[in-house]
Amino acid sequence: MEPLYHYFSISLLVTLLHFSKSHEHSDGFKPDGEILRVLVNSTAQIKCDVGSSLPDDKVLLVVWYKNNLPIYSYDTRGAHAGTPSHWRDEEVLESRAVFHTHREPAELALDPVKEKDAGNFRCRVDFKLSQTRNSNVNLEVVVPPKQPLIFNERRMRIDSRAGPYEEGGSLEVTCVVQEGKPPPTVTWLMNGQIQNSVVDYSYDNTINSKLVVRNLSRIHQHAVYTCQASNFHKKYVSTNITIELYLRPLLVEISFNNQPMSADRKYEIECQAIGSRPPAKITWWMGNVELIGHSQKVSEDGNVSTSVLSIKPTREDHGKALSCRATNELVRNGIRETAMKLNVFFVPTLQLDLGSNLNPEDIEEGDDVYFECKVHANPAAYKVIWKHNNQIIQHNQRAGVIVSSGDLALQGVTRHQAGNYTCTASNVEGDGDSNVVELKVMYKPICRADQKKIYGVARNEAAEIFVPTLQLDLGSNLNPEDIEEGDDVYFECKVHANPAAYKVIWKHNNQIIQHNQRAGVIVSSGDLALQGVTRHQAGNYTCTASNVEGDGDSNVVELKVMYKPICRADQKKIYGVARNEAAEI
């Protein structure tokens, strides 16, 4: 049987070759047949129509040719009528080919298909009755490309993350795809959307696809770019990269805007910078001066930086701009800031001046005098009061006293209106007082009824002439009933005179007191001090002042000095002495 089979195989091959040559261009042969694309290592199903429309017709022989060389046969003739014979070229098809006649249409299945299987497949069908039929299929075996590789502008491979790049900068990446048959199509996508900025060039069975994205913006942060290669329907190989950006601060906000503050009180002001990558550094500024005393924290996602400033504004800060500045030093133009105008409430400050066209040394009785009170306050003062010698001045237009918030006018000023003037302003923060302005009023000399002399009066001196009057008092912090030997004692002599007294003398029991610092006796025109007073300095004290009109004496002040009892040499008795009795026994 084996020699017979061997003989039959050789005979069939010769017959197939004969048919191949003799029927290469016979009727029904279509050298330009349909194209069948099959992915390598999959199953190629090459169709062949073996059906006939004639009754009692049947297939006798099916021969498959590849590039016009027989590679497979299906034979039902003669001895094979009961069991059809299958033959295949083992060198070409190995054991991968099976002809399925029961399928509609019949097909030659190659599983798995190999790259070398690509070519023209012709199926020739011989019928018992019908004319021989030829059909052509051009088999294309698709070899997918390798996994794409992505490189940055410095030709360094990117594994998964690219960057960080500056906001506003450019992204340049190249996708390299090797092999692939037929050459694949390379596509760039951003978040699944096809991108157009692509330049392709190929060499040595390698395709390079360059993607350039200009003016990177916030929408590109964490964008996924995909390089996708395909040379077969719905079959892709791809590589993804995620873009990282350095982002400028998007928004800077101060949370304290338009709220008034009180001077010299402590406040905490919050500022938030949103959208900077990496998180922005926050600084605070008052004009061109950077402020200290603030903290900063960053949210868990790194998107929000928060700074809290502790500030104690002063009245001088009112109206100034307080700025919060967020800086990302890793990106150009990475500074964004916002500012608030400080609204600082403070107690009024006042400046009182005599009218600018008045000479304070040349104001005479009968002149018109006015004062200007300049008030600096926030919020504005709701009232201003004027005082003369600490007494509130009332508006009295008939008397020539004109009072307004910023001005005081004295029409036809008199000698009695001389003295100290102030203004006081009030707002919600409190009351503020001005400086003191002394008003001097010159008037004509006055003669006493019993004195016919006329004295010359300087323009800047008071015009009323009189003998000095004096008021003598023990020091205000001394108790006259509780002065003991060894205490320090002082007297105050107040002199009222015009013209001024040219001398003041002090007397103890009508005896002039001489200055003697060593003995603790300190004499001046208005004061007398007795350091470590003794019992012998008890008695009556006066002061006398003199001017050109005469001498004036003060009232008498008695000094009582208490000391311990003393026993006489010839008297052994002890006498009790009350505190308010003379102590000398």
From TrEMBL:
The keyword Signal appears for this protein: yes
Compartments, as annotated in UniProt: Membrane
Keyword list, A-Z: Disulfide bond, Membrane, Signal
Ig-like domain segment(s): 31-140, 148-244, 249-343, 348-440, 468-560
InterPro entries the UniProt entry points to: CD80_C2-set, Ig-like_dom, Ig-like_dom_sf, Ig-like_fold, Ig_sub, Ig_sub2
CDD domains, alphabetized: Ig
Gene Ontology cellular component terms for the protein in this record: membrane
Signal peptide: 1-22
Membrane topology: Single-pass membrane protein
Domain of life assignment: Eukaryota
Pfam families the record matches: C2-set_2 (PF08205), Ig_3 (PF13927)
Protein known as: Ig-like domain-containing protein
